[in-house]
Amino acid sequence: MKSNLFPIAKEGWKFIGFSALAVIIFSILDLDFLKLLSFLAIFFFAFVFRNPEREAPSFQNNSVVSPVDGVILSIEEISNSEYAYKVEIDSNYLNVAVLRAPLSSSIKSVNVQRGSRLSKIDKLMRKINEKTEIVFEDKEAHKIKVVHTLGVSFDELQIAALEAKKILQGSRYGVMVNGITAIYLPQNFRLNVTLGNEVKASETLIGYFS
Questions:
Q1: pTM
Q2: How many CA atoms lie within 13 A of 53 on its CB side?
């Protein structure tokens, strides 16, 4: 996981580069309409892959922040021996796509599953769409699981998180353009968000381990 401090995430450079090349080619061929579309595509990809600096608020120890920008889609109690709550966050093309670590921790596991890119309203979306499951564990053995599921998108899930590596809260570890993120939390967790809340990666407090 390397620092990515450019204003545009490196995952977007190829799209911007192809669009810029298309502008040059269509200019040579004197195809003004296609040149305009390619020029607009540069701005579109620059917006989608924007990579703003975020000042992490000073939360107390044992805090968990949002790993993505978006809106709280659902909050559920689940019957699971390891996790008791599931919080889902809906991210779309207007949200910053950069993913950030929810807590200072070591990465226990990373499981990438390539698949479809069905619409979020499709019942099969959560089952067969492309997804990545990451388990984070802090120094006090508090563990959470984050599952990123891609929706309709022109790009695949880009994950730079590596198993057994340590990561600081708020650090960048990937990019997801349009998808749903599920955060699985243990019984000893106190939630700080409600349904419909707008959240920002590394800035919005999801809650605390008690």
A1: 0.92
A2: 3
